[in-house]
């Protein structure tokens, strides 16, 4: 998926300060005053970057701001990061070819897609997809940071006759007439470079745009440093936890060997010895039998402790009888004002007599709330109907939550409860994953079907209370 | 090798009883102690041909006693006998002449004792 709308030329007119001509590595003596639209863009991007935790999402957000029509309007943009003496292509956004650009931009115009609107809630699939799509171009852009790169200080426009071989290489790879080069330096050495061009529209690049591109690139550098640091911190924490876990396991193994294997070896050894050479002295016989019996008894005690210890891990799950009909009425009722405001009808069906299931009330609440929220999200644009129905089904009590909104996207249908799949319908995907986790912890299960045409249904199968 | 004097060090009295019965029957002279201090005392008296040493001796590590024994007499064979096989990963245990995992079958221990006494002679 691309995020560029190819509207750089008309948009740029708004950014163009009076009396500023195209910049060609020469900056005007007077600094321009940034128009409100650029300031809004910078504020919006900086707000997004404050909460971003993934370096890839940070790169995607800034490069989308470069390429979005309502952003800086470049046709495409790329980020290269220094790796030793190399500048390696790391992330790219925008169409791959001119044909693709025209096709995608036309589609985006038709559907009124505004890429900046999605900055606040980045779609991880789109981010991954952009990484994959541009992999070959990014590899081709990688280049040794030749002498001269280290002297760059400010953003400039490069062309095929630029004196620096890096710039000539990038212009050739991207087949651009001209290319914005925003160097990012650290301690006088190249840290990275952002490249952007208008390879389809050939729109001119104005000073104000170049200046805004430079500011965004510096935001990106700060965000990347922060997110990469955070990622290293998280990896370090994971490693430490794994090491602690391994240490605890080893200590458990040592303790088990000592407390369990020792007495068993002792009892077995004494039994063998008694068989091989029964003592003539009844006192010795009795003493050795006593030692063997005590050893077995100690092992038995230790096994009992282990069993109790394992069983106590499940103590956090205390199942209780829940009258499902009344429960569903109560939870669903809490959503009625929100549903009404969105033009959604909420209906509940359950048998007139009480139907009781084994559950943990707060876990079941979380499950039902997640399912109702998911259904409301599916009806966000269109309005429609949601029903929650309770039915008895053998050893199970079925709790259906169904909506007649948009169907699940194909990526989610394979396993809607796997988690980590981000779509508008289903939110982060973690809501449905947590439904399954909570359900299984209660000995319940959750299923999804679209058997009834036009309806998406999730069913919680709760164990009937007995 | 029969008649050799063996010192068994184990904090489990039951094992000491088992070792006494099994190794006496094979003709060895068996000394036993459940403590590090008892082991030091016995070794100080002299005449011990081989030590069978547990690693977990209550709060004290048998590996520390192993280092102490080898520092005083590097030729005295020491067999480590423990319930936990992974102590072999601890380089301190490499000082020992043999390392066996405790089992109800004493054959492996008996073979190790014979092998170490044979080498020592």
Strand content of chain B: 15-25%
Order of secondary-structure elements of chain B = EHEHEEEHEEH
The helix content of chain B, as a percent range, equals 25-40%
Using the alpha-carbon principal axes, give the shape of chain B.
globular
Query: How would you classify the helix and strand content of chain B by structural class?
Result: alpha/beta
Fill in the CATH topology of the largest domain in chain A. Beta-Lactamase
- The whole-number mean of residue pLDDT values of chain A reads 83
Report the order of strands and helices of chain A: HHHEEHHHEEHEEHHEHHEEHEEHHEE
Q: Please state the second-level CATH architecture of the largest domain in chain A.
A: 2-Layer Sandwich
Give the averaged pLDDT of chain B, no decimals. Answer: 89
CATH fold title of chain B: Rossmann fold
Assembly type: heterodimer
Tell me what you see in this structure.
The complex is a heterodimer of chains A (466) and B (121). Chain A is α+β, with helices and mostly antiparallel strands and 466 residues long. Chain A folds into two domains: 219 residues, 2-Layer Sandwich (Beta-Lactamase); 147 residues, Histidine kinase-like ATPase, C-terminal domain (Heat Shock Protein 90). In chain A, 49% of the residues lie in helices and 18% in strands. Chain A is built from 14 helices and 13 strands. In chain A, strands 3-2-1-6-5-4 form a six-stranded antiparallel beta sheet. In chain A, strands 8-10-11-13-12 form a five-stranded mixed beta sheet. In chain A, strands 7-9 form a two-stranded antiparallel sheet. Chain A is flat, with a radius of gyration of 33 Å. Chain B has 121 residues and is of the alpha/beta class. Chain B has a single domain, classed as Rossmann fold (3-Layer(aba) Sandwich), CATH 3.40.50. Chain B contains four helices and seven strands; from the N terminus they run βαβαβββαββα. The longest helix of chain B has 14 residues. The model of chain B has no long low-confidence stretch (mean pLDDT 89).
């Amino acid at each position: 998926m691309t995020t560029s709308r190819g509207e750089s030329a008309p948009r740029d007119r708004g950014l163009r300060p009076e009396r500023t001509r195209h910049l060609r590595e020469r900056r005007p003596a007077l600094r321009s005053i940034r128009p409100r639209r650029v300031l809004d863009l910078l504020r919006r991007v900086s707000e997004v970057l404050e909460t971003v935790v993934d370096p890839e999402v940070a790169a995607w957000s800034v490069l989308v701001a470069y390429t979005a029509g309502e952003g800086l309007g470049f046709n495409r943009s790329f980020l290269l990061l220094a790796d030793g003496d190399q500048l390696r292509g790391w992330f790219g956004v925008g169409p791959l070819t001119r044909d693709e650009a025209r096709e995608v931009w036309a589609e985006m115009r038709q559907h009124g897609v505004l890429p900046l609107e999605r900055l606040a809630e980045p779609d991880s699939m789109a981010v991954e997809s952009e990484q994959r799509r541009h992999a070959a171009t990014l590899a081709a852009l990688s280049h040794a940071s030749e002498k001269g790169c280290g002297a760059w200080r400010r953003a400039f426009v490069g062309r095929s006759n630029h004196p620096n071989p890096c710039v000539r290489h990038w212009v050739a790879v991207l087949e651009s007439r001209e290319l914005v080069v925003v160097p990012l330096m650290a301690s006088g050495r190249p840290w990275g470079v952002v490249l952007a061009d208008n390879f389809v529209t050939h729109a001119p690049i104005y000073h104000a745009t170049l200046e805004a591109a430079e500011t965004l690139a510096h935001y990106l550098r700060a965000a990347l440093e922060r997110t990469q640091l955070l990622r290293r911190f998280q990896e370090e924490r994971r490693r430490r936890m794994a090491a602690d876990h391994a240490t605890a396991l080893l200590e458990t193994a040592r303790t088990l060997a000592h407390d369990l294997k020792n007495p068993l070896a002792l009892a077995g050894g004494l039994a063998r010895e008694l068989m091989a050479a029964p003592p003539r002295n009844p006192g010795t016989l009795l003493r050795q039998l006593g030692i063997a019996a005590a050893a077995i008894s100690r092992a038995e005690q230790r096994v009992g402790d282990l069993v109790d210890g394992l069983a106590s891990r499940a103590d956090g799950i205390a199942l209780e009888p829940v009258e499902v009909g009344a429960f569903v009425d109560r939870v669903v009722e809490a959503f009625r004002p929100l549903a009404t405001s969105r033009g959604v009808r909420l209906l509940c069906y359950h048998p007139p007599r009480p139907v009781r299931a084994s559950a943990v009330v707060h876990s079941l609440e979380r499950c039902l709330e997640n399912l109702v929220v998911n259904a409301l999200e599916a009806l966000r644009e269109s309005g429609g109907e949601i029903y929650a129905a309770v039915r008895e089904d053998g050893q199970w009590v079925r709790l259906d939550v169904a909506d007649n909104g948009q169907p699940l996207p194909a990526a989610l249908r394979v396993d809607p409860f796997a988690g980590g799949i981000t779509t508008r319908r289903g939110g982060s995907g973690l809501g449905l994953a947590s439904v399954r986790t909570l359900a299984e912890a209660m000995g319940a299960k959750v299923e999804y079907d679209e058997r009834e045409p036009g309806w998406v249904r999730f069913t919680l199968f709760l164990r009937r209370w007995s | 090798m029969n008649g050799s004097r063996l010192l068994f060090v184990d904090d489990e009295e039951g094992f000491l009883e088992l070792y006494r019965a099994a190794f006496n029957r094979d003709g060895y002279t068996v000394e036993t102690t459940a403590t590090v201090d008892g082991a030091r005392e016995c070794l100080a008296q002299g005449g011990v041909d081989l030590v069978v040493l547990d690693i977990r001796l209550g709060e004290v590590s048998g590996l520390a006693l192993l280092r102490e024994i080898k520092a005083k007499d590097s030729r005295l064979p020491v067999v480590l006998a423990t319930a936990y096989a992974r102590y072999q990963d601890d380089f301190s245990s490499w000082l020992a002449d043999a390392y066996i995992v405790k089992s109800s079958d004493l054959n492996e221990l008996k073979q190790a004792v014979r092998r170490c006494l044979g080498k020592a002679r």
